[in-house]
Write a structure and sequence with these properties.
Aspartate Aminotransferase, domain 1; Aspartate Aminotransferase, domain 2; seven-stranded mixed β-sheet; 13 helices; binds pyridoxal-5'-phosphate
C-alpha cells in the first residue's frame, strides 16, 4: 500500500492519543545500526534510538539471533510457569546489585516501564502503609495512572480527574536555569536545604516529630532526568539527598528506565553518585527494543516472599520468554566487554562536537553530557531564552530527510525534551561509530543553519 494511503488510513482508524501526532506522522520501513530507513530507502541517522530503548544498535545481530532461536524453542509459556532465562536473568541482575551495594535483593518483571513503576509503588505502599511519594519537578515516570501521579507534568493528569496520591514535587538542581551567581554544587546544596527545611516543623506539612513519621513513603528519582532534558545534577547531590531520606525514614527509589544499561557509561546511572537505592526500576534497553520487558530490583526486606507473597502483582505477559532470553543475552554481552570505557570515550567525542557547534551557533545555549546521554539547549540568539519553535523546525527538517551528505539525501532523528521543550536529548546507539558522530555534527550544523533561515 502506498504511503499516502497508509497515512490517510492512520488518520481515520488510529487513536491520536499516543505521541505520533506531536509532529507530522512519519513511516519507516527498515532499520540497521544507527539508521532508520523510509520507504524510499533514505537513511536517517538516529540520535535518540527509541528514547534510549535501542542502546545496542538497530537489528543488533547477536540479540536478534537469540530472539529467533527462542522462537524455535520456547516462544510462549504462561507466566505462571518458569523458564530458565527468567531465573538466570534475575540472578545476574541481583548478583550484580549485591556486588555493588552489598544488599540481597530480588527481581520482579513486568512488560513496560510504567507497569514496573506501578509495581514499585505497590512494594513501597506495602512496606510503609502510605501512598504519598516525593518526586522531582521535571521528573517522568510513565503514563499509567500510578506512574502519572508521580510524574511532574500536569498535562498528563489533567483529563483524568483528581489524583489523591499526586506526588510532592521538589525542585531538581537544573543549574543552567537556576539562580544566577551560584556554582552547580552550591545550587545542589541550596535545593537540598530547601527540601530538608520541610522536616524542620510539623507545620511544614510532611513530618510528625512526635511520632517520628513522614507522611511520604519514598522519593522517586531519575539520577539524570530523561524527558526533563538530560539534566545532570552535581556529583554530591544524591549523597546529600540520601542523608536526608535516611534521617527521616523515607525510601529511595531509582528510576533507571531511560538511563540504565550503560547509557551514561555505567550499568545504572546512580552508580556515578555513590549511593545505594532501596528499589531500582529498569526497562527499555534491557531487550534493545525487542520484545518488551521491564522490571525492578528491591532490597530483600521489601520484596521477600513473606511481605510480598504470590499474586501481589501480575500481568499475563510479565517475564515473557522472548524478553527474558534477550535480556539475559544483553546482560552477558555487557559483562563480556568494557562498555564503560567505550561509552565514556564516545561520549567525550560527542560532547566535544557539540561544544564546537556551540561556538558557531549562538542559539545553542547549553551543552552537557554523561557518557552517551547528552543535551543541547536551543535558545534565542542570547543563548538563554528557550526557543522551542527553532527546535521544532529543526526536528521537522531532520524528519523530512532532505539533508545532504556527500551528494546523498539523508535525514536526522532527534528527540525533543526539557522543561521548555527546547532541549535536544541525544541518546545515540552505544555502538555508534566515530565517523557517525562526525556525521551527526555535520548534519546538526546543516539543520540549525537551515532552521534559522526559516
Ligand atoms: C525515566 C522513565 N521512567 C519511566 C518511563 C516509562 O516507561 P514506559 O514508556 O516503558 O512505560 C520512561 C519512558 O520514557 C522513562 O524515561
Amino acid at each position: 500500500m502506498c504511503e499516502a494511503v497508509l497515512l490517510a488510513d492512520e488518520a481515520r482508524y488510529c487513536s491520536f492519543g499516543d505521541t505520533v501526532h506531536y509532529s507530522d506522522p512519519k513511516i519507516f520501513t527498515r532499520c540497521e545500526g544507527s539508521y532508520l530507513y523510509d520507504g524510499e530507502g533514505t537513511p536517517f541517522l538516529d540520535l535518540q534510538m527509541w528514547y534510549s530503548a535501542v542502546n545496542f544498535g538497530y537489528a543488533n545481530p547477536r540479540l536478534n539471533a537469540v530472539l529467533k532461536q527462542q522462537a524455535d524453542t520456547l516462544p510462549q509459556v504462561a507466566s505462571q510457569y518458569l523458564h530458565p532465562t527468567k531465573i538466570e536473568l534475575a540472578k545476574m541482575i541481583a548478583q550484580d546489585a549485591k556486588k555493588k551495594w552489598g544488599h540481597d535483593g530480588r527481581i520482579h518483571f513486568n512488560v513496560g516501564g510504567s507497569q514496573s513503576i506501578d509495581d514499585s509503588l505497590k512494594l513501597v505502599r506495602n512496606a510503609k502503609g502510605k501512598n504519598l511519594m516525593f518526586a522531582f519537578e521535571g521528573g517522568y515516570h510513565g503514563r499509567t495512572l500510578g506512574a502519572s501521579a508521580i510524574t511532574s507534568s500536569y498535562r498528563y493528569r489533567r483529563r483524568y480527574g483528581h489524583f489523591g496520591d499526586r506526588a510532592y514535587f521538589i525542585p531538581f538542581p537544573y543549574h543552567f536555569r537556576g539562580p544566577k551567581g551560584m556554582s552547580k554544587e552550591e545550587y545542589g546544596e541550596h535545593c537540598l536545604q530547601q527540601f530538608e527545611r520541610l522536616f524542620e516543623s510539623e507545620y511544614n506539612g510532611v513530618w510528625d516529630p512526635k511520632a517520628g513519621q513522614s507522611e511520604y513513603a519514598a522519593f522517586y528519582v531519575e539520577p539524570i532526568q530523561g524527558t526533563g532534558g538530560y539534566i545532570i545534577p552535581p556529583p554530591n547531590f544524591f549523597k546529600g539527598l540520601k542523608r536526608v531520606l535516611d534521617k527521616y525514614g523515607i525510601l529511595f527509589v531509582v528510576d533507571e528506565i531511560q538511563m540504565g544499561f550503560y547509557r551514561t557509561g555505567k550499568l545504572w546511572s546512580i552508580e556515578h553518585f555513590g549511593v545505594t537505592p532501596d528499589v531500582l526500576v529498569f526497562g527499555k534497553a534491557l531487550t534493545n527494543g525487542l520484545n518488551p520487558l521491564a522490571g525492578l530490583w528491591a532490597r530483600e526486606e521489601l520484596i521477600n516472599p513473606q511481605v510480598f507473597p504470590p499474586g501481589s502483582t501480575h500481568s499475563t505477559f510479565a517475564s515473557n520468554p522472548f524478553g527474558t532470553a534477550v535480556g539475559l543475552e544483553t546482560m552477558r554481552m555487557l559483562a563480556e566487554s568494557d562498555y564503560e570505557s567505550m561509552v565514556m570515550g564516545k561520549g567525550e567525542l560527542f560532547l566535544a562536537g557539540l561544544c564546537d557547534l556551540q561556538k558557531r551557533h549562538p542559539e545553542i545555549g547549553d551543552v552537557d553530557g554523561l557518557g552517551l546521554a547528552l543535551r543541547a539547549e536551543i535558545c534565542e540568539a542570547d543563548g538563554f531564552t528557550p526557543n522551542k519553535q527553532l527546535l521544532d523546525k529543526m526536528a521537522d527538517i531532520g524528519l523530512k530527510g532532505g539533508l545532504e551528505h556527500k551528494g546523498k539525501r539523508m535525514g536526522l532523528v532527534l528527540d525533543v525534551g526539557g522543561y521548555h521543550k527546547n532541549v535536544i536529548t541525544f541518546a545515540p546507539s552505544l555502538h555508534i561509530l566515530e565517523e557517525e558522530i562526525e556525521l551527526a555534527m555535520v548534519l546538526l550544523d546543516q539543520l540549525i543553519t537551515r532552521a534559522r533561515r526559516g
